Amino acid sequence: MTETTVTRESGSGADSPPPQRSYARMAADESREDYSLRYAPHSFRRWSPTMVASTALGGIAYLADFAIGASIVFTYGFTSGLASILCAATIIFVTGIPIARACATYGLDMDLVTRGAGFGYFGSTLTSLIYASFTFIFFALEGSIMAQAMHQAVGLPVEIGYLLTTLIVIPIVFRGMGALAKVQAWTQPVWIIGMVLPFVVLAFEAPDAWGAFTSFGGTEGAGSAFSWTGFGLGTGVALSLIAQIGEQADYLRFMPAKTEQNRRRWNLAVLAAGPGWVVIGAAKQLGGAFLAFVALEAVGATHALEPIAPQIEALRPWLGSVALPAAALFVIVSQVKINVTNAYSGSLSWSNFFSRVTHRHPGRVWYIFLNLAIALTLMEMNMFAALNTLLGFYSNVGIAWITAVAADLVINKRAGWSPPYIEFKRAYLYAVNPAGFGAMVIASTISILAFSGLFGRYAEAFSTFIAAGLALVLCPLIAWATRGKYYLARPNPVNGPHATGPAAADLTATHRCGVCATDYELPDIADCPVQAGPICSLCCSLDAGCADACRTSPPSGPVLMPMPTRRPD
């Protein structure tokens, strides 16, 4: 069972038995691991709600919104494009609220919440791949934008720029949440100035541009009138960003516990840093489309979709020859801010995937290189040229997943078909829960067939609506039909109806894992019949030889203190 020869230090007690499993130095160092496969303990959540929220919002500095918004409006015209962006933003905001609150309340990332919100232990493995693909697709998109800026500024070949944009984030992501928080804070003033200044310049230099923009019919003959097919297809492209809530959750899990003293700040921070990102995101999509429209005549349709060119054209009246380096600096800062988040979140999702498939965990940091290698390959393949098609396809799967999770949190838990808390530990979960997993597979399959044109033009245009609607209906329907049977493989003695002991337990109280001999807070511990005592969630995940004995021969009595059943209210 030994992972490496490097022993992980125990939490306390000199006479404890030697650990049966030792973790690699990288995996054992939580300052770099950031509890990548675990519940984030209260002892680690040392940031204020404001700090967590500002760090999370710093990660949405990306300029892909500019490119996506411009692409939608150029393809479908202003009226249909505006309706698409606002509709997608509404859907993303509504589905993001319960997910953000669950992650912040329970200290869990998106994968762990998905496990307990209708997908099961192995069912969420597929969503880990979906989330990982989101991170490397958007890393590649953002990296392409940065490479374009470097090419414009200093003539660096884009192929070399792709490599440089990949390498530059590694030292930051390697050090985890602490380094990410510092980078987001230090770069925020530059980003804010760079974001606002082009619109200030245009307000003075081209005051009639917005009026002309509102009657813009696109570059592909869509026209300025509203089109239902354009609206549906445009919404599908914008909805590709729905999985961004997962990256916000990677920060929100470090939110401190909500108390009477910080309740208002906590609620506001979670709302702003969770679903609130899309308010800024929608504004950036419209703003990016506007800048591209203004620059269209000067740079042409192809370059207008690359955020660096419209930035230069907007700044040129005031900054002259300095417009190019100023725009390049803004683009590079923006892309570093988002790509450290993409790389960080990708390492978490790959860790979750491979820990379940291989029963090994060498450490989160190694998966940074896997995620970046895939992203670099996509950049070299010029994925930027197929932006609308790629994002439109991806959104069918992403929205089915996110909607199914949101439906479980909002409907199933309140109806009593799902446990009132998030159970993420292997020891208590079925491998697959048909409620969420089945809903996602059915919804995404049908919507992808619709997207391919199998059911006609209108079904193709509204394929993402089909995915969302089916997932929203099927998740509660399957949970009701199965009477919630597949949520818990066995009762959790610290949560379920068989709990014993005090009515409320101290969540910061620790128990020692019988495998790695390390102390963990109560929510990260399960009772194990093989160990005849507590086992931490990660050691439980990595055990390849227990044959899930806890499900067939559960402990004769609870070995842990009870934990209150809390719903993210």
Fold blueprint:
Elements: H1 25-28, H2 30-33, H3 49-58, H4 64-76, H5 78-106, H6 110-119, H7 123-154, H8 158-167, H9 170-174, H10 177-205, H11 209-213, H12 228-238, H13 244-252, H14 263-273, H15 277-304, H16 308-319, H17 323-358, H18 364-380, H19 387-415, H20 434-451, H21 457-461, H22 463-481, E1 510-512, E2 519-521, E3 525-528, E4 533-536, H23 537-542, H24 549-552
Antiparallel strand pairs: 1-2, 3-4
Helix pairs in contact: 3-10, 3-13, 3-14, 4-5, 4-12, 4-15, 5-12, 5-13, 5-14, 5-15, 5-19, 6-7, 6-19, 6-20, 7-8, 7-17, 7-18, 7-19, 8-18, 10-16, 10-17, 12-19, 15-16, 16-17, 17-18, 19-20, 19-22, 20-22
Task: Please give a structural write-up.
- The protein is mainly α and 569 residues long.
- 63% of the residues lie in helices and 2% in strands.
- The protein is built from 24 helices and 4 strands.
- It has helices at residues 25-28, 30-33, 49-58, 64-76, 78-106, 110-119, 123-154, 158-167, 170-174, 177-205, 209-213, 228-238, 244-252, 263-273, 277-304, 308-319, 323-358, 364-380, 387-415, 434-451, 457-461, 463-481, 537-542, 549-552; strands at 510-512, 519-521, 525-528, 533-536.
- The strands form 2 sheets. A two-stranded antiparallel sheet has the order 1-2. A two-stranded antiparallel ribbon has the order 3-4.
- α6 (110-119) crosses α19 (387-415).
- The model is unreliable at 1-15, 496-504 and 561-569 (pLDDT under 50).
